[in-house]
From TrEMBL:
SUPFAM superfamilies associated with the record: Flavoproteins, Riboflavin synthase domain-like
Protein known as: NDOR1 oxidoreductase
Annotated catalysed reactions: 2 oxidized [2Fe-2S]-[protein] + NADPH = 2 reduced [2Fe-2S]-[protein] + NADP(+) + H(+)
Cofactor requirements of the protein: FAD; FMN
Species: Dromas ardeola
Quaternary structure (record): Interacts with CIAPIN1; as part of the cytosolic iron-sulfur (Fe-S) protein assembly (CIA) machinery. Interacts with DCPS.
Gene name of this polypeptide: Ndor1
GO cellular component: cytosol; nucleus
Annotated PROSITE patterns: FLAVODOXIN_LIKE
């Protein structure tokens, strides 16, 4: 029997492609596949020649650019010296996430699909072009495409005898388990921004602690938009920039929101914990200290002020004790319930904390 392994590689700028990749992984596990999810630049790209089944989930940013966490992979894949049969044993599918209001709509996914085909890959399906402009967002394309994809994959890799697809009503095992430390254990200290190692180019994983020099509002007080000119001191950082570049900052949640979140979930913000992966080979979240306090986790790591995605409602449904509430959450996380979810959550910009 062939080994039933699937690799899901994503290029994500704002987290949507990563969220979709994680969703595909959950669906793979329900079909009894061994599954790994990795950002394209975290993956050892030379190993691609040994893979048999890969799903790529890629966003397109700016004017047809690849996301930051797939730029090295992108450069490697388009090297002229790669033999045209490099990926001849690879079955693959590409799911693109883009916005049709931009001229280069889903450019990265289209180009990736074409390049893997050139290198001998065997496409299971035409490239999927998710569109933010659709009333239901990318899911309008993603949902039917995934149904077709699983039909193709299960034809190649049938379910082992005696096993059935795990029902959506069953919660899958978690990726990590959280272990509280004894209450008298010493508290980890450490600010959000660790000083960068000498000569390390500042990046998402190696931020530079810059001092804010000034913060001025440049729109009139009566104007509905609050536009600001903010100056940072980046002397000694090695950061260079041009007009039009974007600055990434590490935000944190305000203490009142953190307090409310902990009260709602009956968490002691000062308790310390360590995270342990449930499967070997699963890496721990980047930048999360070990051990860590609940307060640090919620302040610096969990995005409780974002508008939650569909997967969040799916997860909540497993923990709801109220049957009506559970049914509503399941509806929000179903393909049929997307218009209702949009009205409840996206239109009023309702945050995770509010939900």
């Amino acid at each position: 029997m062939m080994e039933r392994k699937i690799l899901i590689l994503f290029g994500s700028q704002t987290g949507t492609a990563q969220d979709t990749a994680e969703r595909i992984c959950r669906e793979a596990k329900r079909r009894h596949f061994q599954c790994r999810v990795e950002a394209l630049d975290s993956y050892e790209v030379a190993s691609l020649i040994n893979e048999l089944l890969v799903v790529f989930v890629c966003a397109t940013t700016g004017q047809g650019d690849p996301p930051d966490n797939m730029k090295m992979f992108w450069r490697f894949l388009f090297r002229k010296n790669l033999p045209p049969s490099s990926l001849c044993q690879l079955d693959y599918a590409v799911l693109g996430l883009g916005d049709s209001s931009y001229p280069k709509f889903n450019f990265v996914a289209k180009k990736l699909h074409k390049r893997v085909l050139q290198l001998g890959g065997n496409p299971l399906l035409p490239v999927a072009l998710g569109d933010d402009q659709h009333d239901l967002g990318p899911d309008a394309v993603v949902d039917p495409w995934l149904l077709a994809l699983w039909d193709k994959i299960l034809a190649l890799y049938p379910l082992p005898p005696g096993l059935e697809i795990i029902s959506p009503d069953v919660r899958l095992p978690p990726k990590y388990t959280l272990h509280y430390l004894a209450e008298d254990s010493p508290h980890p200290d450490g600010g959000l921004l660790q000083p960068t190692a000498p000569r390390t180019v500042p990046s998402e994983l190696h931020p530079f602690p810059a001092r804010m020099v000034s913060n001025q509002r440049v729109t009139a007080e009566s104007h509905f938009q609050d536009v600001r000119l903010i100056e940072f001191d980046v002397v000694g950082s090695g950061i260079t920039f041009n007009a039009g570049d974007v600055v990434m900052i590490q935000p944190q949640n305000c203490p009142e929101d953190v307090q409310q979140f902990c009260q709602l979930l009956r968490l002691d913000p000062d308790r310390c914990f360590v995270l342990k992966p449930t499967e070997p080979g699963t890496s721990l979240p980047a930048l999360l200290p070990q051990p860590c306090t609940i307060r640090y986790l919620v302040t610096h790591y969990l995005d409780i002020s974002c508008v939650p995605r569909r997967s969040f409602f799916e997860l909540l449904s497993y923990f709801s004790m109220n049957e009506l509430e559970r049914e509503k959450l399941q509806e929000f996380s179903s393909a049929q319930g997307q218009e209702e979810l949009y009205s409840y959550c996206n239109r009023p910009r309702r945050t995770t904390l509010e939900v």
